[in-house]
Amino acid sequence: MNTFKSITVSAFTALLITGCGGAAEILSTPVENIDNTPLKVSDLTEIEKHNWGHLDLIKDTIPGMSVDKAYAEIIKNKKGEKVIVAVIDAGIDIDHEDLKDVIWTNTKEIPNNGIDDDKNGYIDDIHGWNFLGDTYNEQLEFVRILAKGDTSDPDYARAKTEYDEEYQKYMGYKTNYDQMSMQIASADETLSKHLNKKDYTKADVNAIKTDNETLSRAVQIAKYFYSNGMESLTAAKKQIDNSTTQINDRLNYNLNKEFNGRINGDNADDMSTKFYGNGNVKPTIKSESHGTHVAGIIAAKRNNGKGANGVANNVEIMSVRAVPNGDEYDKDIALGIRYAVDNGASIINGSFGKYYSPHSDWVRDAIAYAAKNDVLFVNAAGNEGINLDEKDVFPNDAVGIGPEVSDTFITVGALEPKYGSGIVAGFSNYGKVNVDVFAPGAKVYSTVPENEYDTKGGTSMAAPAVAGVAALIRSYYPKLSAAQVKQIIMESGLAVKSKVIVGGDTNDIKPFADLSKSSKMVNAYNALILASKTH
């Protein structure tokens, strides 16, 4: 679900051209008062930014999930049962300081002896399984369709149209971002020379008065990035370079019809072979941070004095590496789901997705298998700002808006940390039929590889927030089924009656109630209360 967004290109280009997502009775506040909650006017503090998804709408005027309130008033010192949550994603840094104590270990397997001790078909699967092998970069699914060259494929024409549009778009991005990078570097050099120091401040720049055209342009460029939240041109250059890396990856790997990243020796179109890959579930490179970030949202060790708190305690994270830098293979996902179910996971987090799926039936069968075995699958809605009732996204538990194969599959849209008309993240997909709930997903602070922390946004971040709430319910009320947990999460949320901006388009205003099946945003405090009553 990592989708590159061009946010600053048009405005910066203009600068250059000019020369310069419950039951009313259990809500923590009566539902009729929710929309009277005062909007938070001041900016979030650093502490609030790092923890906003755990805060309480009424107490803090921030649309979090009331996680801290749940611990303080409901969980307290209660002893829950261990819950295994499988994270099907990119690799997880299982040695991270904030995760190492919550990583699942397969006690039936003897490490590094080259023997399948537990006879599950996977040798040395100590902390999970890696279906990708040593690969990281991959094509998008519609590029694979084109690469096969089968014009009779019903998706071929659509794939060809999308490829032509995407390739042209990203070539344009590359040109713009290369230009931006050069302009920033030039402006930085000009300002450093004028001020006679490298570590000049915003105040230094604002104090410059000049008729020199080159210096004036450098000042305007710096001020532009200051106004967009950048503390320095060095930080701006870093962000632009990160975006450029994404663009180059898109062109060199994701959109490259000649590239083949599947080096694990397996045929992705043949389901008869299942035991490929290896037991190394860690990222192959530091920038492969998505899975580590997701794992931290669910279960980063709470209150240990380190960078982040996960939603759930009593959790063990099982790492299933199946999501590359590109589109995941249906076979890897289907087998990853079955691996998680067969090895004890009671919750699966799936922060991935795509819009072409040649073997979507394999994945739906696996989702049905999870439901049959009482496993909850928490699914990210996607980041294109579209209505999923009108366009298929994969994985899913139904074809279109047809009958569902699972009653334990829950799809999550993303919220911003500010209550009001802009509460729904502009990137978040939605759908009255195919999206179930909304949860904190924008600007979320969590773990990334090598004992570091970062802020990321996406429905990829909203899904693990809900997986964490599900883990709390299953830990403290273990007799509840996965289907009951799903219903509790949906019924116990806070209902927002007001209209909101959809897809980041201020001209597209819809009632929040029309964006998901539950019409609610997830609330851990209320969920635990309802769980206690259901239990």
From TrEMBL:
Q: Which residues form the active site?
A: 89, 290, 460
Where in the numbering of this chain does the Peptidase S8/S53 domain appear? 80-492
**Signal sequence interval, chain numbering:** 1-23
Record-linked Pfam families: Peptidase_S8 (PF00082)
Which InterPro entries is this protein grouped with? Pept_S8_subtilisin_bacteroid, Peptidase_S8/S53_dom, Peptidase_S8/S53_dom_sf, Peptidase_S8/S53_subtilisin, Peptidase_S8_Asp-AS, Peptidase_S8_His-AS, Peptidase_S8_Ser-AS, Peptidase_S8_subtilisin-rel
GO molecular function per UniProt: serine-type endopeptidase activity
UniProt keyword terms in alphabetical order: Hydrolase, Protease, Serine protease, Signal
Q: Which GO terms describe its biological process?
A: proteolysis
Q: Which family does it belong to?
A: Belongs to the peptidase S8 family.
What is the protein's name according to its record? Subtilase family protein
The organism of origin for this protein: Algibacter lectus
